[in-house]
Design a protein that fits this description.
The complex is a heterodimer of chains A (349) and B (323).
Chain A (H helix, E strand, L loop, with lengths): L1 H4 L2 H4 L5 E12 L2 E13 L4 E5 L6 H9 L6 E9 L2 E2 L5 H7 L4 E4 L3 H4 L6 H12 L4 H14 L5 H4 L9 H13 L5 E5 L7 H18 L2 E6 L2 H7 L2 E6 L2 E7 H6 L4 H8 L39 H5 L5 E3 L2 E6 L5 H16 L1
Helix pairs in contact in A: 6-7, 6-9, 7-9, 9-10, 13-15
Chain B lengths: L1 H28 L4 H6 L5 H10 L6 H14 L13 H36 L4 H15 L2 H15 L23 H35 L2 H8 L4 H13 L1 H15 L3 H6 L5 H10 L3 H29 L7
Helix pairs in contact in B: 1-14, 5-6, 5-8, 5-11, 5-14, 6-8, 7-8, 8-10, 9-10, 11-14, 13-14
The chains are: A alpha/beta (349), B mainly alpha (323).
Chain lengths: 349, 323
């Protein structure tokens, strides 16, 4: 931790991670797929940012781009400033230092994210040794500490077990231990609870919150589950079809959502006690990123769309009385306020 | 573990019985008279009858099979050749090292070719190197072994005279009167057969290594390794190859086992007195004990290598344990 806060990092005053106008496209046989199209967000020290959206909206690619982990066919532009240093321009060697050192990642499927032929202890030790000039014994004791901290019972004995000897939830704990073993400043969690059952999900989220409090780690939480971000996030970015459509702190977003897509997401949240026959769903499918629709990309599925929506690209604009709350929708604020209330009362009913 | 070995051994007995019974039946379906062949061209009918009785060929097939099994279990012997009365144990014992030289040398060669080019083309799919590899694979798989053998024999052995055309030299203890012997002569005689024998396998294995490595590169745990900050070299060796080579081990074990029963084409072209040629000779002469000798040896190889691969797997793949 001390190393993470000294040096260049301590001198930097702005946000810990500042992503500006990030664009990632993939060249495929069918054409160019714009997987991320002008995404910007900031992550403060020790804060949690939730990135929400449907599968394929570009939320994972955004973070893989920041880490330089996209396939070689990816073209990335924009800026991803980590303590003022642009990761998109960093050398491969510098990126390797940052990966797993200052920025760590955990992934959706803990079943496949650990190497099946290596003991989990060795896999964590590898992470330690890649970033620290310490002995194997020291690395192993740090790995053990990590496993204990994420609540693996009989951690000492389990260091020498293989991934297949762990349950899904336990594997995700191992992944978290491995990600946090070098005390990173940022943890990018890509759908960390999606593959887990509900009780395990809650445990993992609670664990992440606790570790965040203990270590002051900032977290980027990528998820399609608004329930998850409501629980852990400070700020939320809503992505749709490679773009950000709304961005706000968690209270604002849940109290007065501005974008019809956000209403749709909120409306489709199942609630206990709500006497509804069926869940509200957003009609239609997300558009192809190979040939995205003209104008607002949500317009083909939007019940409120009018002619302007199909011609002009809405830009992210601040809400009049809340300059931190950004949204990209042409509807007037009165309609938005009315619809937001409708959505929220329906959801709460 | 103990139960597992017992189960494997029982299976081995079943496989052994099935293979030998089927060979016996096929042999007696062939309309030929081994006794007449064994007795010689100018034998009298009485003599042929004597020979038939002596070789037990006048008994029913089950009884003959019983004699064969009894001989094998009680005396540990594969019997004697119908034709020249040599012990089949000796015949197989002489031929097996020749085939083993060919197969193990060939396997080293095909791995030495296939593993590097398979990995390289997987790392740079669609590159020039990858396309050249795929052309080699196509050629290697398409070209008949016999044709490659004859061409190389003609070009390198005959025209250029760099290597011997055919024949075999013993590494140790060459027989009295042999014209050559020792490691150098042995290797010089084996180079062409190794190449010919290895080309097809090299092609198949290159393709297999390429696709295994490409599949493994897309695995989540490879992404995890990169996210940890591991350099590509470590990602490749520790995370990709370690997993991608698992299926190769299985294939290698089985291919070597099968080939040890005789590489008929390569041995025939280069006049190597191995098991393949022994089997062909045995068939030509309707010499059942000789054929059975090779079949039994080949079956044992398959059974033993199958067991070895399984045991080895328990060590290299922690997900597999014997229960």
């Amino acid at each position: 931790m001390t190393t993470a806060l000294t040096g260049a990092g301590a001198a930097h005053a702005g946000p810990l991670l500042d992503v500006r106008e990030l664009r990632t496209s993939f060249v495929t046989d069918d054409g160019i797929v714009g997987a991320v199209d002008g995404v910007s967000f900031q992550l403060g020290q020790g804060k949690t940012l939730g990135i929400v959206g449907e599968s394929g909206c570009g939320k994972s690619v955004t973070n893989l781009s920041i880490m330089g982990l996209n396939p070689k066919t990816a073209r990335v532009s924009g800026q991803a400033l980590f303590r003022g240093e642009d990761l998109l321009k960093a050398s491969p060697a510098r990126l390797r230092e940052i990966r797993g050192g200052e920025i760590a990642m955990i992934f959706q499927d803990p079943m496949t994210s650990l190497n099946p032929v290596h003991k989990i202890g060795d896999q964590i030790v590898e992470a330690v040794l890649l970033h620290n000039d310490v002995s194997k014994q020291e690395a192993r004791s740090r790995a053990l500490e990590g496993l204990k901290e994420v609540g693996i019972p009989q951690a000492e004995r389990r260091l020498d077990d293989y991934p297949h000897q762990f349950s899904g939830g336990m594997r995700q704990r191992v992944m978290i231990a491995m990600a946090l073993v070098n005390d990173p400043a940022v943890l990018i969690a890509d759908e960390p609870t999606t593959a887990l059952d509900v009780t395990t999900q809650a445990q993992i989220l609670a664990l992440m919150k606790k570790l965040q409090d203990d270590h002051g780690t900032a977290i980027v939480m990528i998820t399609h589950d608004l329930g998850v971000v409501a629980e852990v996030a400070d700020d939320i970015v809503v992505m749709y079809a490679a773009r950000v459509v709304e961005q706000a702190n968690v209270e604002d977003l849940f109290e007065r959502p501005q974008h019809p897509y956000a209403w749709g997401l909120l409306g489709s949240l199942p609630r206990l006690g709500a006497d509804v026959d069926r869940l509200v769903q957003i009609p239609g499918q997300p558009p192809s990123l190979l040939r995205p629709p003209n104008g607002c990309r949500f317009s083909p599925r939007c019940p409120h769309a009018f002619s302007r929506c199909r011609q002009e690209d809405p830009r992210l604009m601040p809400v009049t009385d809340a300059p931190e709350h950004l949204q990209a929708c042409f509807l007037d604020e009165e309609t938005k306020a009315r619809e937001a209330v409708k959505t929220l009362t329906a959801a709460a009913a | 573990m103990f139960q597992y070995i017992i189960r494997r051994l029982l299976w081995a007995v079943v496989i052994f019985a099935a293979v030998t019974v089927i060979t016996y039946i096929i042999f007696f379906v062939i309309p030929a008279d081994p006794a007449a062949l064994a007795a010689g061209k100018s034998a009298t009918p009485e003599f042929v009858a004597q020979v038939r009785h002596f070789l037990h060929l006048d008994r029913s097939i089950p009884v003959q099979y019983f004699y064969f099994v009894k001989n094998l279990i009680v005396h540990g012997s594969l019997g004697t050749s119908y034709v020249n009365r040599r012990s089949v144990d000796t015949i197989v014992g002489e031929a097996a090292p020749v085939t083993a030289s060919l197969v193990f040398g060939g396997a080293i060669l095909w791995l030495a070719i296939a593993v590097p080019i398979g990995i390289l083309s997987a790392l740079k799919p669609r590159s020039l190197a990858d396309r050249m590899t795929m052309v080699f694979v196509l050629i290697g798989i398409s070209l008949p072994v016999v044709w490659i053998g004859l061409i190389l024999q003609w070009a390198i052995g005959f025209k250029l005279g760099w290597l011997p055309n055919a024949g075999y030299c013993d590494v140790i203890n060459p027989p009295v009167g042999a014209t050559c012997g020792g490691v150098v002569d042995w290797a010089r005689h084996m180079v062409l057969p190794w190449i010919v024998f290895a080309i097809l396998f090299a092609a198949i294995y290159a393709r297999m290594v390429r696709s295994n490595v490409m599949d493994t590169l897309g695995e989540d745990y490879v992404r995890t390794a990169r996210a940890k900050g591991a350099p590509e070299r470590i990602v490749l060796i520790k995370h990709v190859l370690r997993n991608a080579m698992l299926p190769v081990v299985t294939m290698l074990g089985m291919d070597i086992a099968v080939a040890l029963g005789g590489a008929i084409f390569t041995e025939s072209i280069f006049g190597l007195p191995g098991l393949g040629r022994t089997a062909v000779q045995g068939l030509d002469n309707f010499d059942l004990p000789e054929v059975m000798g090779v079949v039994v040896f080949a079956t044992l190889c398959v059974i033993i290598f199958g067991l070895l691969v399984d045991i080895l797997y328990g060590f290299i793949d922690p997900r597999i344990r014997f229960e």
